[in-house]
Design brief:
The protein is of the alpha+beta class and 164 residues long. It is 30% helix and 25% strand.
Amino acid sequence: MSEEPVFVRSRWGTGRYVYNHRSPVGLALIVLTSFVALGVLFGMRAQSTWSESELGDAVREGVQALEGKRHYTSLESDHGLLITEAMRESGIGPRYGVDTRQGEGGAYTVSTEDTDSAYCVRITFTRDDQPPVVFPGAADRPPPGPDMLAFYLSHATVSEGRCP
């Protein structure tokens, strides 16, 4: 058995204790710590990247969550954030890294940097005529135009591939 201590004071002027590479236990701890650190880094990388199946599952779950959901929005808004938020709420995949590109007619191409696949999500809105709060004079106002905020119900569909 070696008489070398497992920990020694650092000679770099900090006065802290460090693993002693001359001790067999200290050397084993140095090697073990390196492997644990690498495992943690690889695990973090795996949790922060999208896989093909995760993206597909998250898009489908997000579209299901959007179906019939009530939103306070305008028809002219970019609704890509609604898709991203619905995917995030599904709990599938990382919480970030989704790219939604707006196309024509309420179509959004959903993809990530980590995958080669893309999905076309189409969102349409119908007017929700039951606002949660009735305020004086609401019946006298005209219906909102496409750029005015109002309550709408969303309807969403998904297909594989980029939107045309």
